[in-house]
Structures are given as C-alpha cells and as structure tokens.
Amino acid sequence: MEDVKLDLNRICLDKEDRMLNTKMRCNHGLLLHLMTSWSDNNPERRFWSCPYYGSNKCNFFLWRDGVVDERSKFIILKLEKKVKDMNEMLKIMKTKEELVGSYSDREIMEMEAESAFTEIEEQCNSFVKMKDEVKNTP
Question: Model's pTM, two decimal places?
C-alpha cells in the first residue's frame, strides 16, 4: 500500500513563472531538473544542483525559492507530520478492513459448510429411510 503524497511542485506551479520554464544547466552542460529540499531548515524549498558528487562535481547550485521564514517552516513541518500520521491511520484502517473481510469470508464459508453438512445429513437420513423401506417390503 502506498502512502498518499502531495506533489507541491505541481500544485503550486505558477505557469507565469518564467524561471520554471528556463532550461537550467550546470557547468558540465547537463540539463537540470528542479529539485525540492526536504530538510528541516529548507522544507519544500526548490533548487537546481549539479547531479555529480565527489571529484566530478562542478559545485553548481541555485535556489529557485527564497528563504523560508520560521513560521512557514513550523507550519510546513506540522503539515508533513499530519500527512504522515494520516498515512499511518490509513494503513491501520486498511488492515482492519482486510481483517473484517477475512472474518466475513470465513463466516460465509462456515455457513456454506454447515448448509452442505445439513444437506448431506438429510440425504443420509433419506437413504436410511429408503433402506428401511426396502427391508420391510415383502
């Protein structure tokens, strides 16, 4: 089961923002994708960065968004926690639903088995009765 995820890049996309349509390249000439920071200091702040690490890196880095103020950081972190908690609750509810479904399926199977057993019992009684009738026939 997948968690519910919000793609704020898509939700908050401003089609008038020319920077989002700009083809940003690092010093290697690579076309860069707009990334999103998930750190506590820069929650959901977008940036471009060279994808290479170590000795190959060119140190290209550019923030797309301005600095996030403290109140916004607090609110964003609280909302992220709320989404996480709701995902956990969703998992629990789905598990309970599966258990209830399994219980119901078992209950239905038991009723069907009981019905089949009753039918077999009735047939056996019918055969015994027929056997007795055949025995008692002159």
Answer: 0.49
